[in-house]
Design a protein that fits this description.
Layout: H1 2-24, E1 52-53, H2 59-64, H3 69-82, H4 99-105, E2 109-110, E3 120-121, H5 127-132, H6 137-150, H7 156-162, H8 165-171, E4 175-176
Parallel strand pairs: 1-2, 3-4
C-alpha cells in the first residue's frame, strides 16, 4: 500500500507539472511583419512615397525606411559634424559608403531644407574629421605638417599657403582658426 501511495503521488506530480508547464509556456505564433515606409516626423502631412529629408531626419527615421543601423549612424553623425549635407555624394567621404550605397540611399533620401553648414575648426579637427569635411589626403597631410611645424594655423594667410587658391575659396567662409 505504501508503494501504491508513492506511485500515485509521483503520477500526480508529473501530471500537475505537465499541466502547469503547458499553461505558462509561451505560445508559438507565426508573425508576418510588414515593411512600412514611415518618414520623418517633421511634417504631419507627409505622404507615402515621399523621400526622407537627410538634413532633418533623426536616427530612427533612417531605420524606419530600411537603412541599416551601421549606415544610419554614419550618415547621422556625419550630418551632425558638418551641419548640412548638400549632395548625397558627400557621403562617399565616409568609411564603408561607396557609389553603390549612395545609389541605394538615393531611393529613400533626398536633399531638403534644414541644417546650417558648421564652421570647420581647422586647429582641432582630427585627420578623419578633415577627410569628412572634404579635404583630400594630400591636403590633410599638408595641414597636419603645417600644424606640426607651426603649432596652429593662425589665419587665412596660413591656409592659402596650404591649399590651392581654388580650394581655399571653397572653404574660406566656413573656416574657424580658434583653437577652442
Amino acid at each position: 500500500m505504501n508503494q501504491n501511495i508513492k506511485l500515485i503521488i509521483i503520477i500526480t506530480v508529473v501530471l500537475l507539472t505537465s499541466f502547469v508547464y503547458n499553461k505558462i509556456k509561451p505560445e508559438k505564433k507565426v508573425v508576418q511583419l510588414k515593411k512600412e515606409l514611415i518618414y520623418s516626423s517633421d511634417s504631419k502631412d507627409d505622404k507615402l512615397g515621399k523621400k526622407l529629408n537627410i538634413n532633418t531626419a533623426v536616427l530612427e527615421d533612417y531605420l524606419k525606411v530600411g537603412i541599416t543601423l551601421s549606415i544610419a549612424k554614419k550618415v547621422y553623425n556625419y550630418r551632425e559634424l558638418v551641419g548640412r549635407i548638400d549632395n548625397l555624394e558627400e557621403l562617399e567621404r565616409l568609411d564603408g559608403i561607396g557609389s553603390k550605397t549612395i545609389t541605394k540611399l538615393s531611393k529613400n533620401l533626398e536633399i531638403g531644407e534644414g541644417g546650417v553648414v558648421r564652421k570647420i575648426k581647422i586647429n582641432t579637427l582630427t585627420p578623419k574629421g578633415l577627410k569628412y569635411r572634404g579635404f583630400t589626403k594630400k591636403e590633410v597631410t599638408k595641414i597636419l605638417k603645417f600644424k606640426k611645424e607651426n603649432e596652429v594655423i593662425y589665419s587665412n594667410i596660413d591656409m592659402m599657403k596650404i591649399l590651392s587658391e581654388k580650394r581655399y575659396q571653397e572653404y574660406e567662409d566656413i573656416l574657424n582658426y580658434n583653437s577652442h
